[in-house]
Automatic annotation (TrEMBL):
<dbReference type="InterPro" id="IPR058678">
    <property type="entry name" value="ARM_PUB"/>
</dbReference>
<dbReference type="InterPro" id="IPR013083">
    <property type="entry name" value="Znf_RING/FYVE/PHD"/>
</dbReference>
<feature type="compositionally biased region" description="Basic and acidic residues">
    <location>
        <begin position="246"/>
        <end position="259"/>
    </location>
</feature>
<dbReference type="Pfam" id="PF04564">
    <property type="entry name" value="U-box"/>
</dbReference>
<feature type="region of interest" description="Disordered">
    <location>
        <begin position="227"/>
        <end position="261"/>
    </location>
</feature>
<dbReference type="InterPro" id="IPR011989">
    <property type="entry name" value="ARM-like"/>
</dbReference>
<dbReference type="GO" id="GO:0061630">
    <property type="term" value="F:ubiquitin protein ligase activity"/>
</dbReference>
<dbReference type="GO" id="GO:0016567">
    <property type="term" value="P:protein ubiquitination"/>
</dbReference>
<comment type="pathway">
    <text>Protein modification; protein ubiquitination.</text>
</comment>
<keyword id="KW-0677">Repeat</keyword>
<dbReference type="Pfam" id="PF25598">
    <property type="entry name" value="ARM_PUB"/>
</dbReference>
<dbReference type="InterPro" id="IPR003613">
    <property type="entry name" value="Ubox_domain"/>
</dbReference>
<protein>
    <recommendedName>
        <fullName>RING-type E3 ubiquitin transferase</fullName>
        <ecNumber>2.3.2.27</ecNumber>
    </recommendedName>
</protein>
<dbReference type="InterPro" id="IPR016024">
    <property type="entry name" value="ARM-type_fold"/>
</dbReference>
<dbReference type="Pfam" id="PF25368">
    <property type="entry name" value="PUB10_N"/>
</dbReference>
<keyword id="KW-0808">Transferase</keyword>
<dbReference type="InterPro" id="IPR045210">
    <property type="entry name" value="RING-Ubox_PUB"/>
</dbReference>
Length: 608
């Protein structure tokens, strides 16, 4: 569709806007433009899939036109930030306030219009993937939050402008009447009796690209409607959009908190804008709610949503300090700490054919090796495509059959099976089913003896399963698990080392696994990674794992010994930092292993 391609072009243009482009804008216009640009950039996959769908029916084409109108309004608003309106030199504080109020109203309209368009996305007309739908749901949640933050919405004005735009679009350029300048007496009437309404129409119409005659028409119709209904002169603001009564009800119930407390910005997830429950740090140093940044990554994104910088690695480091501050803040304010919802409230049609999937699962147990291999490869592909497929495959008992294939002597079948389990584990509820099916021991066996690709995917599967805390304990206590990961970290391919590092980091969040990792010899490959300047991100990955390991005195002593026993400069450095006192204490009171490491370090320091 030509209009879909136009939407894609607008999204690219807005997404390219950065902080430097908005340097001339004052707050809050600059911040509003940046946030809007980030949200619009998340729609790139949606407009790409809409464009790929090709020509649709009338409903599809109408929706695409509606989306383009919303995106054009967003582009005009961002343009305000690039060349912001400024009061004259003689202007006072009241003029500054007026500019802020005007842009705030326009921002509310832009977010309302974009949210309304996304709410009406006709799923039956486009083959929207689950991953893209999840991104759309995220953007809608963010836009709703923005509207709530900005206060009441002039939905009567918004709707009227939206309808006029739709009429103009549907009529086409030939059918439009030539624009006429409004009569002076009519404009004077508006100015005297309905100044507030006229100003709202003017601002919303400007950001929508309407002419003066259309502005006058909208104002006239609004005033006439209000007077006929016997209502006050200004439109009644409402707290949420009026696209759907059911959605309106649920949204108002969420917002209706008379004693609600303003949440500090640092406590909100930049993606969901909700109070964070499980904050984690990504490689750029930004903090997000774990569930939302994990979903962002699972959708194939490899950039930081807030800064747009490339993620050097996909490690999610728990931000314990911020989590503690959030809990303290909740306690002080007397509010319930936030809990993560199990679903986003969106419903999708079943994406897979149950009968076909059940037939594939039966073939996993076929007496023919070729049939087993083919079925495993097909299931691997299906599990990668959508959440619905992951659910259907689990319900069809694919997981126990795949676990059995992990012991196959055919390496290709083994590789397909472990990768299928990895893809199935993306759906959180499948993680428990995979562990209950007894998958951990055979996955570790694949990690030790499989092909390099199978070993890489086995490490990634261990990472995915270890996202559940109980699984960290079970995996770490399984004989050979951490040793196999350390071996891959030491001698695997570049991707294998990365997968092993990510899995080890996550496992070592659990205290007992830190000691197991150090005893398994993790320090040797980590030291090599610190010296490896050829692999981008290797040093950061090694330091991240070391930072977790060093939260234990015994491990800290072992790490220092590894760093210093053959490096006089490092040894002198810890001497200057006053290591003798804590090492002497550790040599007296630590575990047997800690005493040995501390004593050895003290000996090296004495020789120095």
């Amino acid at each position: 569709m030509a209009t879909a391609e136009a939407a894609a072009e607008i999204v690219r243009e807005i997404a390219a806007v950065g902080a430097a482009d908005l340097a001339a804008a004052a707050e809050p216009l600059r911040a509003d433009c940046l946030r809007l640009a980030r949200k619009v950039s998340l729609l790139s996959h949606l407009v790409a899939e809409v464009a790929e769908a090709g020509e649709g029916d009338a409903a599809a084409e109408a929706w695409v036109r509606d989306l383009v109108r919303a995106l054009e309004a967003a582009r005009r608003f961002v343009a305000l930030g690039r060349a912001p309106p400024t009061p004259t030199a003689a202007a006072g504080a009241s003029d500054q306030d007026a500019i802020c109020n005007n842009t705030a109203l326009q921002f509310k309209y832009v977010t309302w219009q974009l949210q309304a368009a996304l709410a009406n996305l006709p799923h039956s007309c486009f083959q929207i993937s689950d991953e893209v739908q999840e991104e759309v749901d995220l953007v809608r949640a963010q836009l709703r939050r923005e509207m709530e933050k900005k206060g009441d919405l002039d939905v009567t004005v918004f709707t009227k402008v939206h309808d006029i735009l739709a009429q103009i679009d549907n009529a086409g350029p030939q059918s439009q009447q030539p624009h006429q300048q409004p009569e002076q007496s009519q404009m004077e009437k508006f100015s005297k009796d309905h100044l507030e309404l006229q100003n709202a129409v003017l601002l919303v119409s400007e950001i929508s690209g309407l002419s003066k005659s259309d502005m006058t028409k909208i104002t006239s119709e609004l005033i006439e409607g209000l007077e006929n209904a016997g209502t006050p002169d200004s439109p009644k603001p409402v707290s949420i959009d009026s696209q759907s009564s059911e959605e309106t009800k649920s949204s108002s119930e969420e917002v209706k908190k008379p004693d609600s407390v303003a949440i500090p910005e640092d406590f909100r997830c930049p993606i969901s804008l909700e109070l964070m429950r499980d904050p984690v740090i990504v490689s750029t140093g930004q903090t997000y709610e774990r569930a939302f940044i994990q979903r962002w990554i699972d959708c194939g994104n490899r950039t930081c949503p807030k800064t747009q910088q490339k993620l050097q690695n996909l490690t999610l480091t728990p931000n314990y300090v911020l989590r503690s501050l959030i809990m303290q803040w909740c306690e002080e304010k007397g509010i319930e700490p936030p809990s993560r919802s199990k679903s986003d409230g969106s419903s999708h049609e079943v994406g897979g054919n149950r009968l076909a999937i059940e037939a594939l699962v039966r073939n996993l147990s076929s007496s023919s090796l070729d049939e087993r291999k083919s079925a495993a490869a097909e299931i691997r592909s299906l599990a990668k495509k959508s959440t619905d497929n992951r659910i259907l495959l689990a319900e069809s008992s694919a997981i126990p059959a795949l676990v059995k294939l992990l012991s196959s002597k055919d390496q290709n079948t083994q590789e397909h099976a472990v990768t299928a389990l990895l893809n199935l584990s993306i759906y959180d509820q499948n993680k428990e089913l995979i562990v209950v099916a007894g998958a951990i021991v055979p996955i570790i066996q694949v990690l030790r003896t499989g092909s390099m690709e199978a070993r890489e995917n086995a490490a990634a599967a261990i990472f995915s399963l270890s996202l559940i805390d109980d699984n960290k304990i079970m995996i770490g206590s399984t004989p050979g698990a951490i040793e196999a990961l350390v071996e891959l970290l030491q001698s695997g391919s570049s991707r294998g080392k990365k997968d092993a590092a990510t899995a080890l980091f996550n496992l070592c969040i659990y205290q007992a696994n830190k000691v197991r990792a150090v005893r398994a010899g993790i320090l040797v490959p980590l030291m090599r990674m610190l010296q490896d300047s050829s692999r981008s991100g290797a040093i950061d990955e090694a330091l991240t794992i070391l930072s977790v390991l060093a939260r234990n005195k015994e491990n800290a002593a072992a790490i220092l010994l590894a760093l210093c026993k053959k490096d006089a400069e490092n040894l002198a450095c810890i001497g200057r930092l006053g290591a003798q006192i804590p090492l002497t204490e550790l040599a007296k009171t630590g575990t047997d292993r800690a005493k040995r490491k501390a004593t050895s370090l003290l000996e090296h320091l004495r020789k120095l």
